[in-house]
């Protein structure tokens, strides 16, 4: 009988990493990554994060990593009703979902579009009606954007 034989591969990997003293004596790393200048100012709107979460949850359920939405609710320590609210964002027309994912960052004040503003749109089963409602919401809310957000939108 023949035994399985494995061959060992040897080699050397050299990684260069430097530590510099930072704030309050803590060490700060200068490793690979994004510099603070590469990050846009402001916060990602909550509705954008929720839309991304709904897409992620849907993928988890489709791959079988979560049995159903109730399982996700238990894992996330939220109610089934809250998971349903988040997952209902997937009922939006794909173009609206894309616009939600690419909303401008909130630089000052509150997010102009909130989840509760979008819920009635997601409840409508017809995409053409959803588009009309979405355009009306954008017209109402996006005109109230602070000047800094207008500048950020124009820079794109």
Describe, in short, the structure shown:
By secondary structure, this protein is mainly alpha-helical.
Helix content: 40-55%
The number of helical elements comes to 7
Q: Give the total of beta strands.
A: 2
Overall radius of gyration: 23 Å
Overall pLDDT score: 82
What's the helix-strand series?
Answer: EEHHHHHHH
Span of the ends, CA to CA: 68 Å
Strand order of the largest sheet: 1-2
* Fraction of residues in β-strands: under 5%
3D structure, described in words:
Helix 2 crosses helix 3 (80-87) and helix 5 (115-123) runs antiparallel to helix 6. It is extended and about 60 Å long. A two-stranded antiparallel ribbon has the order 1-2. The protein starts with 18 loop residues before the first strand and ends with a helix. It has helices spanning 46-63, 69-76, 80-87, 94-101, 115-123, 127-142, 147-155, and strands at 19-21, 27-29. The longest helix has 18 residues, at 46-63. The protein has a domain at 46-145. With 156 residues, it is mainly alpha-helical. 15% of the residues are buried. It is built from seven helices and two strands; from the N terminus they run E-E-H-H-H-H-H-H-H.
Keywords:
156 residues; mainly alpha; two-stranded antiparallel sheet; 7 helices; 49% helix
Helix-strand layout with pairing:
Layout: E1 19-21, E2 27-29, H1 46-63, H2 69-76, H3 80-87, H4 94-101, H5 115-123, H6 127-142, H7 147-155
Antiparallel strand pairs: 1-2
Helix pairs in contact: 2-3, 5-6
């Amino acid at each position: 009988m023949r035994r399985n034989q494995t061959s060992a591969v040897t080699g050397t990997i050299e990684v260069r990493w430097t530590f510099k003293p930072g704030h309050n004596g803590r060490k700060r790393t200068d490793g690979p990554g994004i510099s603070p200048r590469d990050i846009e100012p402001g916060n990602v709107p909550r509705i954008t994060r929720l839309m991304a979460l709904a897409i992620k949850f849907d993928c988890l359920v489709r791959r079988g990593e979560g049995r159903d939405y109730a399982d996700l609710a238990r894992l996330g320590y939220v109610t089934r009703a809250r998971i349903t609210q988040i997952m209902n964002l997937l009922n939006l027309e794909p173009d609206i979902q894309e616009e939600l994912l690419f909303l401008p960052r909130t630089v000052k004040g509150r997010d102009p579009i909130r989840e509760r503003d979008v819920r009635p749109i997601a409840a409508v089963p017809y995409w053409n009606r959803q588009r009309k409602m979405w355009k009306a919401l954008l017209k109402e809310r996006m005109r109230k954007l602070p000047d800094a957000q207008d500048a950020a939108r124009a820079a794109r």
